[in-house]
């Protein structure tokens, strides 16, 4: 996760990227900072638990004019002790238990805005937590399309790339290896997942390639080496895999996913990707699309990413969500 530990003379935090593939968080942080600077403001952005920060770092973050938090365990600290006028909380899911929902509702009362990256969660915040619709905003997540673009000019090396670690269905990926002749590139930062695939590489030496802790600057090349991005998600209560979906789309690589929250707002079935229910769906989609409409699908992916999800396109709407509308309510 992205952790802000340094406090520069310019009164901004220097983000420290701990994992080599976490560069997308850095893009998001820079995006928020740009919006803040345009409003003569600065933002304190937290993505991890308080135990990862020194007391001095926490105090400085709490003193920021606008706070942006993404972790429930620190939300109550921010809401209670920060003097910031604008407090934004980025939320991905609603707890299932009544107790946790009550706790979350109490915590979120201290924030001026709750932003979600999917419309399902936005609706649940109103219907299940009773939050005011004026306080909740669905804001699309973005991608840097200048950085993420197709780098391969030759034939794709792999049929599928399976990136990321959160709630991935590794059993389905293994079934795909066993029941088809498809080649797979698996990207992971998780050591236990890497161990699982290292054991399989000897069984499928020609069809399985594992890449562990891929540096961020190599991601476009990795996406571009495959025909499809496969995101088999085991948890449907949050938009898992969203960053990977947008990155692959920007590289012109169609995505196949089964996750409702990931696919509903960003993926148009048959236009820039597909939603599947089973392994059979994956194999059928692959055989039909590669034969008939792959190039059109790939062009649609790139076009949609540039037109709707590039950070520069999203800037004005995020600006309004955090500042224009927010400060009227805070003042």
Explain what the structure shows.
The protein is an alpha/beta fold. The protein folds into 2 domains: 2-142 and 311-330, Rossmann fold (3-Layer(aba) Sandwich), CATH 3.40.50; 158-309, Rossmann fold (3-Layer(aba) Sandwich). 44% of the residues lie in helices and 18% in strands. It is built from 13 helices and 13 strands. The strands form 3 sheets. It has a 6-stranded parallel β-sheet, sandwiched between helices. Strands 3-4-5-6-7 form a 5-stranded parallel β-sheet, sandwiched between helices. A two-stranded antiparallel sheet has the order 1-2. α2 (55-62) links the parallel β3 and β4. The longest helix is centred in the C-terminal third of the chain and has 20 residues, at 311-330. The protein starts with a strand and ends with a helix. 39% of the residues are buried. Mean pLDDT is 83; it is low at 1-21 and 326-331.
Layout of secondary structure:
Layout: E1 2-7, E2 13-17, H1 23-38, E3 43-46, H2 55-62, E4 66-69, H3 72-81, E5 86-91, H4 98-108, E6 113-116, H5 119-127, E7 136-138, E8 158-162, H6 170-179, E9 184-188, H7 191-201, E10 208-212, H8 219-224, E11 226-231, H9 242-250, E12 255-257, H10 260-263, E13 273-275, H11 279-292, H12 294-309, H13 311-330
Low-confidence stretches: 1-21, 326-331
Strand arrangement, largest sheet?
10-9-8-11-12-13
Largest sheet report: 6 strands, parallel
Q: How far is the N terminus from the C terminus?
A: 33 Å
Give the class-level CATH name of the largest domain: Alpha Beta
Mean pLDDT: 83
For the secondary structure, the number of strands is: 13
- Whole-angstrom Rg: 21 Å
Structural class: alpha/beta
Order of helices and strands: EEHEHEHEHEHEEHEHEHEHEHEHHH
Percent strand: 15-25%
Q: Give helix % range.
A: 40-55%
CATH hierarchy: architecture of the largest domain:
3-Layer(aba) Sandwich
Q: What is the overall shape? A: globular
